[in-house]
Design brief:
Elements: E1 4-7, H1 11-23, E2 28-31, H2 34-40, E3 48-52, H3 60-70, E4 76-81, H4 85-93, E5 98-102, H5 106-126, H6 141-152, E6 160-163, H7 170-179, E7 188-192, H8 198-206, H9 223-226, E8 231-235, H10 242-254, E9 256-257, E10 266-267, E11 271-276, H11 280-285, H12 291-297, E12 300-303, H13 314-329, E13 335-336, H14 338-345, H15 352-366, E14 371-372, H16 379-388, H17 407-414, H18 424-437, H19 443-462, H20 467-474, H21 478-488
Helix pairs in contact: 1-5, 2-3, 10-12, 13-15, 17-19, 19-20, 19-21, 20-21
Length: 496
């Protein structure tokens, strides 16, 4: 963390603040004039700047203007006498974080500096350049399509909508789009709209003026201002509240917005990249997402494949994450045995790349020895893999299914369900009538199981045994289809 700069011609004030901040383990650097601080800005920057207004030579307001012109994200606290309150107003108009009125309470001064420090560190995090972003790994054909799309969009400022399951790497793709765009030298700012409480999200996006609401003790720039000239990545856009969707639509339409509590229109020069794991078309039909905003965002759609669709990339990713985790912990990287690598390559991994990364972190810390075998992996993964595995020879229906005397219905499960000219509803009615006439028990359960088994088998055939893809096609959950396959004794499903 960079030091806190204290600029004041009064040596006693510098001394008091230095000692108070030293007790808080905060580094400081002091200057007796604004000119000295301006000179130091040529070779370094502070985390927070605290400056008096009235000093011989250049004033604190001149220093404020210099700092904000070169480094707008640095919070500046102005020290002022009561007779300088008009100057304090000018300071706020110039972008000051807050002011300290002389004589000030040292504890309150430290508290204020800490708040400014938190703001500075937060902005530093969100404005990290995409130059340090990790590369996207992948050799699978599905990922090559993504790479080609990034290449085609490299000289474009067009709005992009990235879709894909949670943990599949949507932010990495957004960073790559920024890194290879004309805006690469400007900030990349990311915001997960689902992680921010609804009542704070508006302020996060658009900023707020001082006094706009309880707790708004200073003006704060929102993510649109932080991303000025660069790229704003809005993750989980499908969860954005409807009233904020309206405000976002206006920014995308004419590029203007207002801070919360503000009356001055601000112009945004920002490229927006949005991402979601949800089906926005369904959200639109349900009235949960504005159709006009959907069309504004859906200029170019980029679908990111799940890890199940790029299993050949799992070994590459696993080795990368094991190396990365070992480097962070300062230990030797562990390696997976061929059997363990094959085991990982066939795991379901619903959390996609993020889950694989977490698993590699676990292996680095918890697995014994340098070569990791299947038995060294987390026990819950081994148990889940074993419980989901069904031998391909298991084709028989459960014991509660009808006997061969009900051949019409049974044949429709294990064989061809017939051509387009067969009326399956009539067949169902005939079968049900016969079973009811014979006073067979649990008619609903028997026919219901046969109906479900038929649908799941056909879906698995359609998806070449990939049960997660079959679940998506049938409109049911991953856990539901896994349970049904076990209950119904259906074979041929892959543990994807």
């Amino acid at each position: 963390m960079k030091p806190i700069w204290i600029v004041d011609d009064d040596e006693s004030i510098r001394w008091v603040l230095e000692k108070a901040l030293a007790r808080e383990n905060l580094a400081t650097q002091s200057f007796s004039s604004a000119r000295d601080a301006m000179q130091a800005l040529q070779t370094g920057t502070p985390q927070v700047l605290v400056s008096d207004i009235r000093m011989p030579g250049a004033s604190g307001l001149e220093l404020l203007q210099t700092v904000k012109a070169k480094h707008p994200g640095i919070p500046v606290i102005i020290i002022t006498a009561f007779s300088d309150l008009d100057s304090a107003v000018s300071a706020f108009q110039g972008g000051a974080f807050e002011y300290l009125a002389k004589p000030f309470d040292v504890d309150k001064a430290v508290e204020l500096i800490r708040r400014a420090l938190e703001e500075s560190l937060r902005e530093t995090d969100v404005e990290q350049s995409s130059a340090n972003a990790p590369e996207i790994l992948g050799q699978a054909p599905a990922m090559q399509d993504v790479f080609r799309a990034i290449g085609r969009l490299s000289q474009s400022n067009v709005t992009v909508l990235i879709t894909g399951e949670s943990g599949s790497g949507k932010e990495l793709v957004a960073r790559a789009l920024h890194k290879h765009s004309p805006r690469a030298a400007q900030p990349f700012v990311a915001l997960n709209t689902a992680a921010i409480p609804k009542d704070l999200l508006e302020s996060e996006l658009f900023g707020h003026e001082r006094g706009a609401f309880t707790g708004a003790q200073a003006m704060r720039r929102g993510r649109f201002e932080q991303a000025e000239g660069g790229t704003l990545f809005l993750d989980e856009i499908g969860d954005m509240p409807l009233d904020l969707q309206t405000r976002l639509l206006r920014v995308l339409s004419d590029g203007h917005f207002y801070r919360v509590g503000g009356h001055q229109s601000l112009k945004a020069n920002v490229r927006v990249i949005a991402a979601t794991h949800q089906n926005l078309e369904h959200r639109v039909r349900e009235g949960l997402f504005r159709e006009d905003l959907y069309h504004r965002l859906n200029v170019i759609r980029l679908r990111l494949p799940s890890l199940r669709e790029r299993r050949e990339d799992i070994p590459i990713l696993a080795r990368h994450f094991l190396t990365q985790s070992a480097r962070q912990l300062g230990v030797e990287a562990k390696r997976l045995s061929p059997q363990a690598m094959q085991f990982l390559s066939h795991l379901e991994l619903p959390g996609n790349v993020r889950q694989l990364e977490n698993l590699c972190n676990w292996i680095t810390v918890m697995a014994p020895g340098q070569t990791v075998e299947v038995k060294d992996l987390p026990q819950d993964l081994i148990e889940e893999r074993s419980s989901n595995f069904q031998p391909t020879s298991m084709q028989a229906a459960p014991s509660t299914a009808p006997t061969e005397s009900h051949g019409a219905a049974t044949a429709s499960i294990d064989g061809d369900i017939g051509g387009a000219d067969r009326n399956w509803i009539s067949l169902l009615e005939t079968e049900a009538a016969q079973m009811l006439a014979e006073e067979r028990p649990e008619v609903m359960d028997i026919l219901g199981r046969q109906f479900e088994a038929t649908l799941i088998k056909i879906a698995l055939k359609h998806t070449h045994g990939r049960k997660n893809d079959a679940a998506v096609r049938l409109g049911i959950g991953r856990n539901t289809i896994t349970r049904k396959i076990q209950e119904l004794g259906i074979g041929g499903a892959e543990d994807d």
